[in-house]
Amino acid sequence: MKNKILASFATVLVAAGALVATAPASTAAGLGSCTAYKQYSSGAYARFVPVNGSTPDCILGKGNYGNAVWALQKALKTCEKYSLAVDKSFGNETRDVLKKFQTKKKIEVDGIYGPETRGTMRFYGGESMYGSICNKF
Predict the structure, then answer these.
(1) How would DSSP label each residue in 11-69?
(2) How far is CA 46 from CA 36, 41, 78, in A?
(3) Distance between CA atoms of 25 and 4, rounded to whole angstroms?
(4) Residues of the signal sequence (predicted)?
(5) For a pLDDT cut of 90, what percent of the chain falls above it?
(6) How many independent structural domains does the chain possess?
(7) CATH number, domain with residue 56
(8) Is the pTM of the predicted complex or chain greater than 0.85?
């Protein structure tokens, strides 16, 4: 009986290790999910950036929903010029567009928004008489 319990426990540990090993680097770093967006600066330098509380060091992935996803989708559509529904829902379409963006920028292609992706992206900041305002973070 003891050997069966130990074997079962070992199986669980191996399975858990496999799950940890395949987790994206941004998740493994312990970053929380982006839950809102924050406007940084104003006027011609404005940009709406996904945040968790007051920090922009957060992640977004498939299944996330809300204003943080809106900021990401708006940036991808308006500033980076990808065809994408801006619906506040991070689904397959958003993941696939984000992968295209990551490939274009030659960064890790995982379909997850995190600090590395943020560093290469221009963010939507509003409209002016000259068109959309887009700025890097």
Answers:
(1) HHHHHHHHHHHTS-HHHHTTPPBP-EEEEES-GGG-EEEEEBTTBS--BB-TT-BSHHH
(2) 16, 5, 14
(3) 34
(4) 1-28
(5) 75
(6) 1
(7) 1.10.101.10
(8) no
